[in-house]
Amino acid sequence: MCRTRGKLAFSALMLASATVHAQSANMGTTFHALEARAVRVTTTFPDAAIDVRRKDGQAIDAVLTDRAGAVRGRLQMPAGARRVQWQRDGRSNDAQEFDLPAQTEVSLDWASHQLYVLWTDDRAQAAAGRALDLADESATWDGHMRRDRRALSRGASAGQLAARLQSVETEFDEVVVRSAVDVHDRRPTGKRVDYSRFTAAIRDRRTGAARGFVRWFDTAQVLTWKIEGGSSGVILPERMRGGWTFTPTMGWANVQAYQFATEAARGVAPTGPDPLAQAFRGLFAQPARSVPRALLARTVAGEPLAGTGPSGARSPRADSWRSLPWQFGGRGAATNEEGCDNLHWLDGSIFRVCCDVHDRCYEANGCSSSSWRWPFSGGTWSCARCNVGAVYCFCTLANPAYCGGGAGGGSGGGDGSGGGCSSVAGGFCPAECTSCSAR
Predict the structure, then answer these.
(1) What is the pTM of this model?
(2) Which residue among 127, 138, 237, 337 has the highest number of C-beta atoms inside a 10 angstrom radius?
(3) CA torsion 248→295→368→397, rounded to 10°?
(4) Which residues in the chain land under pLDDT 50?
(5) Would you list the domain boundaries of the chain?
(6) Sequence-distant (≥ 6) Cβ neighbours of residue 9 within 8 angstroms
(7) Any long-range contacts for 59-68 (C-beta under 8 Å, 24+ apart)?
(8) pLDDT value at residue 33
(9) Interatomic CA distance for residues 344 and 351, integer angstroms
């Protein structure tokens, strides 16, 4: 249980989009570019487990087994194809096919949910003495899920079926990320408690060593992360205009955790719209403001250089202003490299809006990567304003406790995967969320 001093008023949050993604489909070009590096996804429901593998050429092969270990269904999508084949009990002589809608981009996570939905519909139809029918006149779309129309009319929606999910494990080239529902000892407290919904634990694929985590608090709409030897942070809904534009899921969190742990997005050339950035369109329009030395130093340097440290103690490096922008954010995200690499995503499917707007500010003012070097050599005050704006964005949006707010906080026992609390925003309970309780 985590409690911090002070009060924080939470306004009622309505998601900007009514869409609740039960699976990872059409999540943005950058998301799918990184998800394409996943080689295997294992999804667990109370009554079934689904093993999805990526074959040559991005082909997808998913197999569902029941709790007894018997194969009860198979879903396949050949490389470069838009046609999906479903087989009852894995038998090719009992297969049905359907086409994906135009422009729909799917993932291994989507395949696992689609197969589970079809298995559920097939059982419901069998109980009613009918066969599952995926033909155009008998089937319909439930979000991104292909459904038997009659089974859907009498059964649970795709979102309700997704709520049964217990865990999702995603294997990438460097790491394995496993998201699982958090279990809490829900003792009556008489106060509001926002329990964490799930935690995505990151482990090194070769050694098995812990690499960090991503955690989602669904009722508070708060996301936290902490990477071993790297970045940490918190995303709060009241700092996003309109709130979250999608609902974070385990499949999404695993891809986001992969990015946090590896910074693999640097090798991706993002394209397409930037819906998340629209939520912050007024943030950088604010007049350039005087940012306290301590605030800027602690943000750009990537560790507390001035003022109070995470525990409230005075930092011994309070006057290390000259060491400023040699690191911005996580490990290896040097500010002297091109771009603003902390949370660096362009299409809005993963959080990186501060850098998106910063890069656009650079383009508009003729700045270059050298403009990051203090005191912005080779640039102008317009470039400095872009940099100050990025600092302001990260401090007020992505990591406010780390940048000078809410340094007080409680602490708890436990190891790195299951308990404890830190006033640093990426800790197990964010200091800014006084009602949040992690497992």
Answers:
(1) 0.68
(2) 237
(3) 20
(4) 1-21, 270, 272-351, 374-378, 398-428
(5) 44-162, 172-398
(6) none
(7) 60/106, 60/108, 60/111, 62/108, 62/111, 62/112, 62/114, 62/115, 63/90, 64/115, 64/116, 64/119
(8) 85
(9) 8
